């Protein structure tokens, strides 16, 4: 068979891929299933397996398609997909290329809301420890909202009615649409640059979750959390809760309620001031009455009329104290003298001069005793030396020579004591009392003894 009839794997795969791509039933299809083996590549592309109880298919969703998603897909999540079926040539496998994806059974915005809320809560963004107190008497109130909406009118009207001495600074911002989150975050940062702003109201009127979504964005939550100025959130109606509500230092159910929380009512303040004024006047009258009675008591007292009594007793007390001081001083001086005498006697007893005299006397006694012992030992040694000299002189060969004897030494200077010590023909030296004789041995005779 001719080899040209055989197809290459690449050609076969391309042919199958063209079949898939041309089939209108495999383009723009809707599929539902459960996500498994989910992986998000560093490029932003998503790779996962879509499965049900009896089958599975590989799925790919490129970053250009998933950039606008409001939730993060996870393993085990049931989803609804729209995409195209095609063949991945390098692997020879068919898979679905996802164009759109949303959760099955729950809106994607609500799911994204839950996921972001859980994420920021774990980061501690909603912690009560981060909440800043709202000032009781703000001078300037910043308002971040749409300048044309009903919310800004409600806030301004409420503040001017309740707290006309407060100044309102409106920071216009988009509160709906794709650029709304960025606009709100930038307005919060701008308001923080104004050091005179005491409190911020951030919000808008009610609406659907899509209309309120800007206040569920992470950048808005971070801007609120990082704000140095305390923030009151006022988004939607009383039943609407957004991420901004949790991140703010205080939540108001409506923009009007936010204005009421931001400033006190001027009538309440005036009433409090009036009550304080009444209490102050009453207290001053009571204090004045008390001080007048005290002054009258002082001026009518005996001491005030006769002040000498006030210091006469003190003079007498000073005399008693002086006498007691002198008596104690004498006692202490006598005790000090006795103690000084005792210390003086002890000092004399252990004075260095006294110790030196004692040691010197001891030294002299020891020296005399040493001299006496030395003299005794010297005499004893002299006597022993004399006896030894006498003994040596008695035993000395020289003394023998005084009696007529002589000493004979061999050629190696050894004393000749026997005829065995020399031989015929050798030379010997004869030591006499008055000199030496150098002799030659001609013959040796043995003694008859």
TrEMBL record:
It catalyses: Exonucleolytic cleavage in either 5'- to 3'- or 3'- to 5'-direction to yield nucleoside 5'-phosphates. Pfam families: Exonuc_VII_L, tRNA_anti_2. InterPro entries: Exonuc_VII_L, Exonuc_VII_lsu_C, OB-fold_nuc-bd_dom. Its EC number is 3.1.11.6. It is an enzyme of class 3 (hydrolase). One of its GO terms (molecular function) is exodeoxyribonuclease VII activity. Residues 7-102 form the OB-fold nucleic acid binding domain. GO terms for cellular component: cytoplasm; exodeoxyribonuclease VII complex. Residues 125-439 form the Exonuclease VII large subunit C-terminal domain. This is Exodeoxyribonuclease 7 large subunit. It comes from Rossellomorea vietnamensis.
């Amino acid at each position: 068979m001719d080899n040209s009839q055989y197809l290459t794997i690449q050609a076969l795969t391309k042919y199958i891929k063209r079949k898939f791509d041309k089939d209108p039933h495999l383009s723009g299809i809707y599929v539902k299933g459960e996500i498994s083996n989910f992986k998000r590549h560093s490029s932003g592309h998503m790779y996962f397996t879509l499965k049900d109880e009896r089958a599975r298919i590989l799925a790919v969703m490129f970053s250009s398609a998933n950039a606008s998603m409001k939730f993060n897909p996870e393993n085990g999540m049931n989803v609804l997909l729209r995409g195209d079926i095609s063949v991945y040539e390098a692997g020879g496998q068919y898979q679905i290329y996802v164009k759109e994806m949303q959760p099955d059974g729950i809106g994607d915005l609500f799911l994204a809301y839950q996921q972001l809320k859980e994420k920021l809560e774990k980061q501690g963004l909603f912690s009560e420890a981060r909440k800043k107190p709202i000032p009781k008497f703000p001078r300037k109130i910043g308002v971040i909202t749409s300048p044309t909406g009903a919310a800004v009118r409600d806030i301004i009207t409420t503040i001017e009615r309740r707290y006309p001495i407060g100044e309102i600074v409106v920071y216009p911002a988009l509160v709906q649409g794709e650029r709304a989150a960025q606009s709100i975050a930038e307005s919060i940062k701008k308001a923080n640059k104004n050091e005179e702003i005491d409190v911020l109201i951030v919000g808008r009127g009610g609406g659907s979750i899509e209309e309120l979504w800007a206040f569920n964005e992470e950048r808005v939550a971070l801007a609120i959390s990082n704000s140095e100025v305390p923030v009151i959130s006022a988004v939607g109606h009383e039943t609407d809760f957004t991420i901004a509500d949790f991140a703010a230092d205080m939540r108001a159910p409506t923009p009007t309620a936010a204005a009421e929380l931001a400033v006190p009512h001027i009538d309440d303040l005036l009433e409090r001031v009036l009550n304080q004024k009444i209490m102050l006047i009453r207290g001053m009258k009571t204090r004045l009455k008390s001080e007048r009675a005290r002054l009258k008591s002082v001026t009518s007292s005996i001491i005030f009329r006769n002040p000498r009594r006030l210091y006469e007793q003190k003079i007498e007390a000073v005399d008693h104290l002086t006498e007691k001081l002198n008596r104690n001083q004498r006692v202490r001086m006598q005790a000090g003298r006795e103690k000084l005498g005792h210390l003086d006697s002890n000092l004399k007893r252990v004075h260095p001069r006294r110790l030196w005299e004692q040691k010197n006397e001891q030294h002299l006694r020891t020296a005399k005793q040493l001299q006496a012992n030395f003299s005794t030992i010297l005499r004893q040694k002299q006597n022993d030396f004399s006896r030894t000299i006498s003994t040596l002189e008695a035993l000395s060969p020289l003394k023998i020579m005084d009696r007529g004897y002589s000493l004979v030494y061999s050629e190696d200077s050894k004393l000749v004591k026997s005829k065995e010590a020399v031989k015929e023909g050798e030379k010997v030296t004869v030591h006499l009392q008055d000199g030496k004789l150098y002799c030659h041995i001609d013959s040796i005779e043995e003694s008859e003894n």
